[in-house]
Amino acid sequence: MLSDIELKISRPNFLTWLKNSRLVENQDGIAMVALPNNFAKEWVEVKYHKLILGSMRDLSGSIKKVEYVVEGNLSKKPLRQKIVKRAPIGFGDGQLAFQEMRVDPKTNLNPRYTLNSFIVGPFNELAHSATAAIIENVGVKYNPLFIYGGVGLGKTHLIQAAGNEIMSLYKDAVRVKYVTSEKFTNDVVWAIRNGRAEEIKKNYRDVDVLIIDDIQFIGGKEKTEEEFFHTFNALHENNKQIIISSDRPPRAIPTLEERLRSRFEGGMIVDISYPEYESRVAIIKTKLQEHGVELDDSSIDIIAKRVQKNIREIEGILNKLLFYQTTYKKALDTNTVDRIIAEATQQSMNKVSPSQIIKAVSAFFEISSNDLLGRARNKEFVEPRQIAMFLFRDMLSMSYPDIANRVGKRDHTTAIYAYKKIDSGIKGSSDLSQKIMMIKEVVNKTV
Ligand code: ADP
Ligand code: MG
């Protein structure tokens, strides 16, 4: 069945959405397709239902209906399981690409971030318990709650989890809004340019919980700081909860206005430090378990020793291991694990060559490298070509003229255009970013 569908949809889409699915049951003319997560389920339901139903009917005339279930929910329904295909899903950021699209448009919260999936150790215990306390006492306990710490240590996860938790506890009684400080800045700029200052007030003061991520970026942007100061005061006076994250404490944000700094310091300030070895092991083990991947203790030990300061990086390695396991359908031996970790941590970047990128991109899209690098403007060559140019820049830091020369002897502006197009495309489309991620994995693996 899968191979039948594979022929009908593009390979990247197939790889992204359907490869990890399996047929679990076919009873009374109802076929059940199990998908790794909620998002994949929704996506496949909306985009591929017709195709799947059609293919199933072609195979067996008795099929009347197709239903979709999330893998994790399966155990609740005892089913006679006929396993066709099974593969685990990605960790963290790999999955983030999928989940980003599920962001709740009202709150801007991503449901992937929960307190349940947040692992607590000595390094983040304080931040976690302060967060738990404000969830119980919204707006009155610690206000603002200011959480700071380095990159990839769980700030976004924790503050979004607070929002999600508050939403599920208080439902519609509480309005929550999550925003990055860049988004807030953009909104202020927009309001100024369009003479719509009241819009900011409406959007940001009409909430019960305001969560603002990476506040350090507003330092030095006077208008934004001023607007935020007023927003802050309006909320604070009315006992509305404010939760802030930053990569450093208020006093260390050099261009932050004094009056904002003192407001921030008027609440609770907690930091997330680097996870200790034991916490790192716990994080790795939990994440492996969540995704049903087995790894021996010595490999876990290697990862925990190698990556000390960034949980996102740990997830990156786990994703690579997972990718290897699913692609080659082989158990992970220590040598492979060692190699993958070394690759992931020692910037294999320099070892990548243009020809590896060309090979990976043309293989991925199933076109010849001549077509990829040629000048024909057929639709099926254009995106792969832009992706190749993007990767030349992104992975090899090649100059635009070099890139243009390499790809069909074009003008360097074509290379600039291609880079920008893909770069902004990644931010807007999880489908595209997923393709890029997969191609990069292949490139890195062939090094
Ligand atoms: P930051 O905002 O501090 O840069 P993130 O919140 O984006 O970091 O975390 C990076 C990645 O690590 C995310 O995928 C997140 O889910 C994961 N992560 C961070 N801290 C934890 C934790 N304590 N338990 C489980 N996952 C975590
Ligand atoms: Mg963050």
Question: What secondary-structure arrangement, pairings included, does this model have?
Answer:
Elements: H1 2-8, H2 11-18, E1 22-27, E2 30-35, H3 38-59, E3 65-70, H4 92-99, H5 125-136, E4 145-149, H6 155-170, E5 176-180, H7 181-193, H8 197-205, E6 209-213, H9 222-237, E7 241-246, H10 258-265, E8 268-272, H11 277-290, H12 297-306, H13 311-328, H14 334-345, H15 354-365, H16 369-373, H17 379-396, H18 400-406, H19 412-428, H20 430-445
Parallel strand pairs: 2-3, 4-7, 4-8, 5-6, 6-7
Antiparallel strand pairs: 1-2
Helix pairs in contact: 4-20, 5-6, 7-8, 7-9, 8-9, 11-12, 11-13, 12-14, 13-14, 15-17, 15-20, 17-19, 18-19, 19-20
This protein binds adenosine-5'-diphosphate and magnesium ion.
Describe this structure in words.
The chain has 447 residues and is α/β, with parallel strands linked by helices. Helices cover 55% and strands 10% of the residues. The longest helix is centred in the first third of the chain and has 22 residues. The protein folds into four domains: 100 residues, DnaA, N-terminal domain (GMP Synthetase, Chain A, domain 3, 2-Layer Sandwich); 148 residues, P-loop containing nucleotide triphosphate hydrolases (Rossmann fold); 56 residues; 92 residues, Chromosomal Replication Initiator Protein Dnaa, Chain: A (Orthogonal Bundle), CATH 1.10.1750. The protein contains 20 helices and eight strands.
